[in-house]
Amino acid sequence: MSDNDFAIKINKMHKWYGDFHVLRDINLEVTKGEIIVVCGPSGSGKSTMIRCINRLEEHQQGDIIVDGIELTNDVKKIDEVRREVGMCFQHFNLFPHLTILENCTLAPIWVRGMAKAEAEEIAMGFLEKVKIPEQASKFPGQLSGGQQQRVAIARSLCMKPRIMLFDEPTSALDPEMIKEVLDVMTDLASEGMTMICVTHEMGFAKQVADRVIFMDAGQIIEENKPEPFFDNPQNERTKLFLSQILH
Amino acid sequence: MSEQIREYELGMHPELPPPNRQSGLVKWVMDNLFPSVGSGIITVICLIFLYYVIPPLFNWAFWDSVVFNATSREECYAINDGKGACWAFIYRRWDQFVYGFYPEAERWRVNISFILLAMTLVIVLAEKVRKVKGIMWLVLILPIICAILIPGSELLGLTPVPTNKFGGFMLTLIIGMTGIFVSLPIGIGLALARISSLPIFSVFATLFIEFIRGVPLITLLFIASTLLSYFLPPGTNFDLLVRVLIMVTIFSAAYLAEVIRGGLAAIPRGQYEAADALGLSYWKSMRLVILPQALKISIPGIVSSFIGLFKDTTLVVIIGLLDPLGIGAAAIADIKWTALGYELYVFIAVFFFICCFGMSRYSLYLERKLHTGH
Ligand SMILES: Nc1ncnc2c1ncn2[C@@H]1O[C@H](COP(=O)(O)OP(=O)(O)OP(=O)(O)O)[C@@H](O)[C@H]1O
Ligand SMILES: [Mg+2]
């Protein structure tokens, strides 16, 4: 396969925070439409890795090619990548001074140059998809955590991204809200979106993921399809981690 | 311990009535003025104090005062025996207090400028008006028209009026409003530069801010009035008022920059990241996401700075500009109106109080309106 057939290709990537070698020799190829779940202990570098994919963090060595575009210091290319890659954060990061609808239309209007009416129509479509169109004129502070995270997903989708990154989207939520967010993500997966999800929701991983990746100490230790990964982990550290989170 | 507190037998809790739920005037007075013995005593002392101060003050300022029927202090005293204020002094010199020594025939230009300024304020402050499409251009255009109209220009057939003829409240408003309108964008720019990751910007902004903040405004004004002429090439005629405007503006901008930097620091990193992740460029994310929030947090500090700036305009009297204090000082030096310091300073204090109190109320209103959380 040529580089263009991959949604994301990470090749021998290293990253340091000062002296701290946080990512070591990361190699990852994600084909279009693939759903990847990333798990691993706290501090293993999961967030750092997916944040390198849309250049919220810089890497020092190796290549990252997203949708055929190589990430370098070139600001234009970074912007191009960011337009195609949506991201959802653990703490939603909605813009508190804008209404839900304005949160969703901001980037389409200002980045894609879309007309306001069109952007609003698209935004309402996605708000319906995440099942909260009735909240459109409220402010983020007036919504529950689960609702906010669904808005955050809708906000990313309004840019019509080809790839979605999720960084622990449910770990700041109460248990009863986790399902509503996972349902939205499951829908998205079934529609063929390319997704990388950092999550510890193993039920979601088993049901939706094409591949599960386990990271520890800045390295990818193990990767496999969900069934063999959960039923028959190879690496000792994976076994230990799974035994801890699956009780 | 519990033995001592319990005044009834175990299981014999007395049937107390539910707490009184009075309302109305008596309850308000009891709750607010006499909630306890100590507070009650303080209330009484305050009431006695007010009783002794308010009526005489009222009599002095209104009841026994003379406004229209006198042309000198002597005449005032002849009417009220010196018991009341002699506002006649303000009344007779009203034009000077408003326009300074601006030529009478040209004052219509100042009056039009006052109206344009009022329109600008309405556009900036009133939300409904602000939403009208394209109207924000007027906020730029109207002050520029004022800036042409007041000094005048031969080209437009307006007799030039030298700036040393400007004075009074007109001068206060020129300095105050220019300072406020111009220093806000500069302050925002300095704050962004100071937190910039590019060292040229941050070092320059930090040095600039710290230098300006480390020097009293009065020193800057002296630099403007005297020192600068040594540095300027001989023969250049760089208007004193313009120099003062520049100094006042950068002084205010340095303070604003720090206030706004505080606001920027309070914005969580996640907001920057979300804006980046959506593909917003630096300037767009600043303008649409970061600054609206940072400025909202900074409103109290920004308005305090503006109030400070507005009051500091009175310092220009020291370098010889005739703001209301300067006009007033000249007026009470007049043999006809000597010893009218009380009237003068009360009058000027009331003017500044109204302006500053207005700003402070508006900032409260703005804060409440922009509050979007729970
Ligand atoms: N800006 C930074 N500067 C220095 N070190 C950092 C920075 N951000 C993260 N780190 C360190 O890098 C390591 C990896 O962090 P990362 O956030 O990627 O972990 P993670 O796997 O996402 O953990 P968690 O499950 O807790 O979110 C951690 O040890 C963290 O302390
Ligand atoms: Mg993380």
What is this entry, summarized?
Chain A has helices at residues 46-53, 75-84, 100-110, 116-129, 145-157, 175-190, 202-208, 226-231, 236-245; strands at residues 6-17, 20-31, 35-39, 61-66, 69-70, 85-88, 163-167, 194-198, 211-216, 219-224.
Mind explaining what this structure looks like?
The complex is a heterodimer of chains A (247) and B (374). With 247 residues, chain A is α/β, with parallel strands linked by helices. Chain A has nine helices and ten strands. Chain A has a six-stranded mixed sheet, with helices on both faces. The mean pLDDT of chain A is 92. Chain B is mostly helical. Chain B has a domain at 188-370: Orthogonal Bundle (MetI-like fold). Chain B is 69% helix and 0% strand. Chain B contains 17 helices and no strands. Chain B has helices at residues 2-5, 25-32, 37-63, 73-80, 88-92, 94-99, 107-125, 127-130, 136-149, 168-194, 199-213, 217-231, 240-265, 269-277, 282-312, 324-333, 341-370. In chain B, helix 13 (240-265) packs across helix 15 and helix 14 (269-277) crosses helix 15 (282-312). The longest helix of chain B has 31 residues, at 282-312. Classes of the chains: A alpha/beta (247), B mainly alpha (374). At the A-B interface, helix 2, strand 6 and helix 3 of A face helix 14 and helix 15 of B. The structure holds adenosine-5'-triphosphate and magnesium ion. Residues 46-47, 167-168 of chain A line the site of magnesium ion (MG).
Portion in beta strands of chain B: under 5%
Largest sheet of chain A: 6 strands, mixed
User: What does the radius of gyration of chain B come to?
Assistant: 28 Å
Q: What is the CATH architecture assignment of the domain at 188-370 in chain B?
A: Orthogonal Bundle
Helix content of chain B: 55-70%
Mean pLDDT of chain B: 85
Rounded to an integer in angstroms, the radius of gyration calculated over CA atoms of chain A is 18 Å
Cα distance spanning the termini of chain B? 43 Å
Number of helices of chain B: 17
CATH topology of the domain at 188-370 in chain B: MetI-like fold
Quaternary state of the chains: heterodimer
Identify the most extensive interface between protein chains.
Answer: A-B, 26 and 22 residues
CATH superfamily heading of the domain at 188-370 in chain B: MetI-like
Strand content of chain A: 25-35%
CA-based shape of chain A: globular
> Which series of helices and strands of chain A comes N to C?
EEEHEEHEHHHEHEHEEHH
